[in-house]
Amino acid sequence: MIDLRPPLNEALGNISSWRNKYTRKEYPHKIVLNIMYRAYTTKLVFEAFSKDELPDFDDYNEASTEIHKFYGQMAITEVHANLIRWMTTNSNEAVGTVCTARLENLASKAESDSQALEELEFTYIFELLNDMSVLFWIAFRLCGESEVNAICKLCDAMIRPLDHMDYAITKQVFQQLLVAPYMNKNYRPLPQY
Predict the structure, then answer these.
(1) Is 162 exposed, middle or buried (0-12, 13-18, 19+ CB in 10 A)?
(2) What is the largest CA-CA distance in the chain?
(3) Rounded CA Rg of the chain
(4) Closest to 190 (Cα-Cα) out of 111, 118, 106
């Protein structure tokens, strides 16, 4: 089973940093920007994997390192220049399991509502862990593991093969089998902003 503590700590560190850097009105929208940035980037990595554009590996750690490097390249070369346009022109379109319009509505509410802000922070952490799980899964797949075996290695759970696993379905699998149980056990609301 994969250790989600490092990505959880990354998410909490980002939240702490943004809380110190941005005003209460700016901060919720910064969270949305980052959720969508990660979602679009992970979707591009998933699409490259689905099209067999990524190399095979013999070692999981090597595969994971290379997937994260590729993720960084996609973030810089594809997402960085296009993110705001994509979020604006496709605001009602789901990117995996997130949607800009829904998140921006929550962010606007979170500018003055602490409960909405907590929900948005939770969503950021949850989606970061979920997208990281997708990257871990891709790394296992690039090492020759079947869809089901890769899920088993990540979640310590067996499922029957699915007919089709796109980015959204893969995230839904990890939401149910890995991220939600992990968050139920380990998430504590942050002090109010």
Answers:
(1) middle
(2) 50
(3) 17
(4) 118
Q: What angle do CA 39, 94, 138 make, to 5 degrees?
A: 40
Q: What amino acid occupies position 19? A: R
**pLDDT value of position 160:** 80
- How crowded is residue 1: how many other Cβ atoms within 10 Å of its Cβ? 11
pLDDT digits (tens, 9 = 90+) for 105-152: 999 999 999 999 999 999 999 999 999 999 999 999 999 999 999 999
Alpha helices, DSSP H, located in the chain:
5-21, 27-50, 60-74, 80-89, 100-110, 114-142, 147-155, 167-174, 180-186
CA gap 184, 186 in Å, rounded: 6
At 28, which amino acid appears? P
Question: Residues with Cβ < 8 Å from 144, sequence gap 6 or more?
Answer: 56
| Cα 135 off chain centre by | 9
Look at phi and psi of residue 156 and say left if phi exceeds 0, alpha if psi is from -120 to 50, else beta: left
- Find where tokens 């990281």 sit: 132
Among 89, 87, 73, 77, smallest CA distance to 33 is for 87
